[in-house]
Amino acid sequence: MSETWTYVCTTAELLPGEMKTAFDEVTGAGIVVVNLDGELYALEDRCSHEDFELSAGRVDPVEGSVECVLHGARFDVRDGRALCAPAYEPVAKFPVKVEGGGVWARDDRE
User: Fold this and answer.
1) Residue 90 falls within a domain, yes or no?
2) Is the pLDDT score of 2 beyond 70?
3) Which keywords describe this protein according to UniProt (predicted)?
4) Confidence class for position 1, pLDDT limits 50, 70, 90
5) pTM, to two decimals
6) Which CATH number covers residue 75?
7) HEC profile for 46-110?
8) How far apart, in whole angstroms, are the C-alpha atoms of residue 50 and residue 22?
9) Contact indicator for 71, 85 with CB cutoff of 8 Å
């Protein structure tokens, strides 16, 4: 588990409906941070159906989801749960914080 927060971007670089990516400084896990109507959520940047970056997909701000471009699996950005086939497993949700005008996230899995 990483106790080290990873800098993602400035708050000005992450507008509503947008996402930014980073790699956890300790675990190396890909992290995608999504701005959903001003609330920030961080997920592992990996589709649970097929090992592919969720950040290559698009955010649906109405549904609050991110769609994997590979096979169309969608995940709720608020909690990582799979919303449709072909994905059935959730993606990991990570903590995110705003500090000093920056957006930070970390892989907090055991």
Assistant:
1) yes
2) no
3) 2Fe-2S, Iron, Iron-sulfur, Metal-binding
4) low
5) 0.95
6) 2.102.10.10
7) CCCCCCCCHHHCEEECCCCEEECCCCCCEEECCCCCECCCCCCCCCCEECEEEECCEEEECCCCC
8) 20
9) no
